[in-house]
Design a protein that fits this description.
heterodimer; A: six-stranded mixed β-sheet; five-stranded antiparallel β-sheet; 0% helix; B: 111 residues; seven-stranded mixed β-sheet; 60% strand; globular
């Protein structure tokens, strides 16, 4: 079993929809959780960072962590065509290595 | 603000040729530096990280090596490239262990 599982998609939604992106993980030592957005042929851009369980909101983005279920989510409200990208979850237990999901491809259609 | 640079942006190399990719960070001191490879369908793989000049930790045994000759410079090298070395190489930096910021990447094709 891989440490971080993420559905690759693609996920296609109409503009204005609420998008839900998810990752599951197996290592209970993970405490730091991140979401990155990666446009085609570009480097990943840090979107959200969360420590331990709970919610964090930043504009149209909300990150949720449920450590009891080993499940993290990223919600995008009022999705825009510019949100079309690959979204990568990442997590760590405090060491130098981040454990990444393989990414979910999102397409927001006008 | 901090900025991370990588070059070249794109590289096409024959099998068996050497490789040198460079990464520099501006606007911060003593960053942790990382080299990742992103291959299609395989996600991001950490290759090397460095917590200081001359200090290199390898995560995956392979024909690649890394060096950190200056505080904000990180170099990825190979003496002889393999077809399997093709991919998107990303440099990242962090001031603490967990929050990493990525550069624009180098797309390497080995023919």
């Amino acid at each position: 079993q891989k440490e971080v599982e993420q559905d690759p998609g693609p996920l296609s939604v109409p503009e204005g929809a609420i998008v839900s992106l998810n990752c599951t993980y197996s290592n209970s030592a993970f405490q730091y959780f991140m979401w990155y957005r990666q446009y085609s042929r570009k480097g990943p851009e840090l979107l959200m960072y969360t420590y331990s369980s709970g919610n964090k909101e930043d504009g149209r983005f909300t990150a949720q962590v449920d450590k009891s279920s080993k499940y993290i989510s990223l919600f995008i409200r009022d999705s825009q065509p510019s949100d079309s990208a690959t979204y990568l979850c990442a997590m760590s237990g405090g060491g130098y290595a981040l454990n990444f999901g393989k990414g979910t491809s999102l397409l927001v259609t006008p | 603000s901090q900025t991370i640079h990588q070059w070249p942006a794109t590289l096409v190399q024959p099998v068996g040729s050497p490789l040198s990719l460079e990464c520099t960070v501006e606007g911060t001191s003593n960053p942790n530096l990382y080299w990742y490879r992103q291959a299609a369908g395989r996600g991001l793989q950490l290759l090397f990280y460095s917590v200081g000049i001359g200090q290199i930790s390898s995560e995956v045994p392979q024909n690649l090596s890394a060096s950190r000759p200056q505080d904000r410079q990180f170099i990825l090298s190979s003496k002889k490239l393999l077809l399997s070395d093709s991919g998107f190489y990303l440099c990242a930096w962090s001031s603490v262990k967990d929050t990493q910021y990525f550069g624009p990447g180098t797309r390497l094709t080995v023919l």
